[in-house]
Design the sequence.
């Protein structure tokens, strides 16, 4: 055979062999998961073990939790029984951002708010203080109280308002002496929407906290916290410089908890009501072989002072107030009255 | 001195003239193909889910071959563009993941005419890829973006023969990136954090240990006159592992389309009767 052809044939064989070896060695396997009860349980445990971000902060022994619930899971006879056991295991995390979603149910850990007084009656506020004459813009609504204080209700940060919309709200409070922002029962939403509101209360860029993320499956593998900044709204838009009171309760959660955290650092801002519900871990999602979804806190968000507010933001000193059942029965909102008194008289 | 300069000038003119004559005497037809690929897809990305997904994939491909202007008998250029789309399901069938991507590559291959109608070539190639995976069931991590710039090796073997009386070109083209750079978020990093400005550790040096990609295309061009029907197989393996995140994307596609050779000619210039054609693939 022609030596050239022999050389080309040999080179070709070597190349094919190299490509074959590389294909086998270069492909990183992701194991196929069987859909057995125990494997679904183990997968849920593993996903949380490798991604959940508050094990050390909450001092949770996740291996012990596995031992406790795996025996029960092995005895589960159907999907609903397994779901109950898995949900109970997730409840050990005491985290409102953790959910297990099956086609028949979504699990929620509720004790973070259900173990506390609600401290908010929306209908009462609308009827007795706003007389149902409030203006509404998106999900937010607002009204100038008789005490010449603006009342702004932000029920959620799921929805965004543009700077021009917020200008219009503030314009209606032009003559107001102060502003009350009611974020009780605000379960959160997008932090960028909270930032849009915050940008109307600052005249220069501020540190709004720090965000970190896991860099590996270990419980203590975290990135260096990265500073989050909020800039003031662009020139030409309204900035609010008068006193502000933020009303909070235990159902003030997640992005609303972040809003309260940041606003509390501003001068002229007072937090009145109850400790917020927390929720300072930004959630991630994953799934199990059976198709159930799981959501969990994955990225801790720190306050500007570097602390975690996973268990909530305390009201300002001397401003911790619960709704009195007697007041509520009489058509009064104890927390709102406290805020009005604070803003009009300067004392509690 | 003057005489030497004149002599040098004369030699230069002669070289330029010979070169011009050579250029005029060379015709470099472009072999272009437009194909559609349809087939299966296997996708898994642990940033989005620990579960493997399977479904279908489709692609639109443009491929262009031409001998190089310099030494057309030895060098061939290959340029290709593609758009990919995949739709895959998890094993329980209750979640859909979409993948979309754009790719482009440019390679320059040294070729050998081994025998009549049989060509082999190998050379370096620059590859660009952009795309994303989308899993709508996820809350804050629904997307995994993909981007890579790599340099690697590409090769081809083309064999022209007649099947009864029908001219056929069989071709195999493997392509293997060797080194480059690719994008990946950190293990548990949200795109929100990247949006806030944390761009640390997003670009990674690609090598076979963390970025392995192998493209294989086997095709047969059935020449019906000036145009050929191209049918074939396109297989793609992409496997990455970085920041404790593993991503696999395997596709197998049946490819069908049109191919042909065309020449770009200046109507004001006649083709020299001595012009020599250098075909990249055919003949």
Sequence:
């Amino acid at each position: 055979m022609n030596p050239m052809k022999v050389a080309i044939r040999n080179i070709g064989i070597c190349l094919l062999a190299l490509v074959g070896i590389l294909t086998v060695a270069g492909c990183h396997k992701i194991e196929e998961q069987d859909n057995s009860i125990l494997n679904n349980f183990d997968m849920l445990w593993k996903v949380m073990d490798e991604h959940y971000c508050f094990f050390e902060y909450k001092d949770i022994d996740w291996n012990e939790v596995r031992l406790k619930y795996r025996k029960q899971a092995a005895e589960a006879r159907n999907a609903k029984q397994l779901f109950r056991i898995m949900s109970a295991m997730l409840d050990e995390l005491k985290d409102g951002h953790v959910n297990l979603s099956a086609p028949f149910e979504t699990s929620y850990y509720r004790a973070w708010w259900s173990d506390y007084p609600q401290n908010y009656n929306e209908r009462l506020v609308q009827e007795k203080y706003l007389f149902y004459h409030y203006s509404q813009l998106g999900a937010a609504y607002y009204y100038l109280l008789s005490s010449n204080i603006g009342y702004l209700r932000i029920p959620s940060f799921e929805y965004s308002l543009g700077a021009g919309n917020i200008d219009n709200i503030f314009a209606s409070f032009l003559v107001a002496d102060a502003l009350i922002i009611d974020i009780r029962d605000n379960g959160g939403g997008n932090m960028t929407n909270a930032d849009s509101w915050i940008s109307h209360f600052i005249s220069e860029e501020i540190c709004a906290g720090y965000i970190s993320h896991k860099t590996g499956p270990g419980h203590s593998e975290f990135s260096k916290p990265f500073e989050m900044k909020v800039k003031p709204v662009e020139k030409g838009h309204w900035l609010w410089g008068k006193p502000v009171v933020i009303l909070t309760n235990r159902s003030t959660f997640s992005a609303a908890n972040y809003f309260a955290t940041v606003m509390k650092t501003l001068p002229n801002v007072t937090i009145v009501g109850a400790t917020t519900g927390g929720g300072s871990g930004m959630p991630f999602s994953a799934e199990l072989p059976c198709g159930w979804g799981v959501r969990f806190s994955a990225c801790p968000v720190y306050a500007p002072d570097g602390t975690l507010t996973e268990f909530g933001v305390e009201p300002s000193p001397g401003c911790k107030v619960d709704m009195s059942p007697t007041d509520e029965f009489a058509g009064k909102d104890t927390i709102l009255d406290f805020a009005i008194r604070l803003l009009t008289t300067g004392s509690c | 001195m003057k005489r030497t300069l004149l002599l040098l000038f004369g030699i230069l003119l002669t070289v330029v003239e010979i070169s011009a004559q050579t250029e005029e005497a060379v015709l470099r037809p472009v072999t272009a193909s437009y194909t559609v690929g349809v087939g299966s897809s296997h996708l898994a990305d642990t940033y989005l889910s620990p579960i493997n997904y399977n479904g279908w994939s489709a692609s639109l491909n443009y491929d262009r071959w031409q001998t190089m202007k310099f030494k057309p008998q030895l060098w061939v250029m290959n340029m290709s563009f593609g758009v990919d789309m995949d739709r895959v399901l998890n094993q329980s069938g209750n979640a859909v993941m979409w993948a979309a991507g754009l790719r482009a590559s440019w390679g320059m291959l040294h070729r050998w005419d081994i025998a009549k109608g049989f060509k082999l070539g190998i050379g370096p190639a620059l590859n660009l890829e952009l795309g994303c995976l989308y899993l709508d069931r996820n809350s804050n991590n629904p997307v995994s973006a993909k981007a890579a710039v790599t340099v690697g090796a590409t090769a081809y073997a083309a064999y022209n023969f007649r099947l009864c009386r029908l001219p056929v070109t069989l071709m195999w083209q493997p392509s293997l990136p060797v080194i480059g750079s690719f994008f990946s978020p950190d293990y548990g990093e949200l795109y929100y954090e990247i949006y806030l400005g944390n761009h640390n550790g997003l670009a990674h040096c690609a090598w076979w240990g963390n970025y392995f990609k192998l493209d294989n295309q086997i095709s047969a061009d059935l020449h019906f006159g000036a145009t050929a029907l191209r049918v074939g197989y396109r297989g793609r393996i992409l496997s990455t592992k970085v920041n404790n995140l593993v991503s696999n994307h395997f596709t197998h596609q049946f490819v069908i389309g049109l191919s042909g050779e065309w020449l770009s000619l200046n109507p004001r210039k006649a083709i020299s009767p001595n012009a020599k054609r250098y075909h990249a693939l055919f003949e």
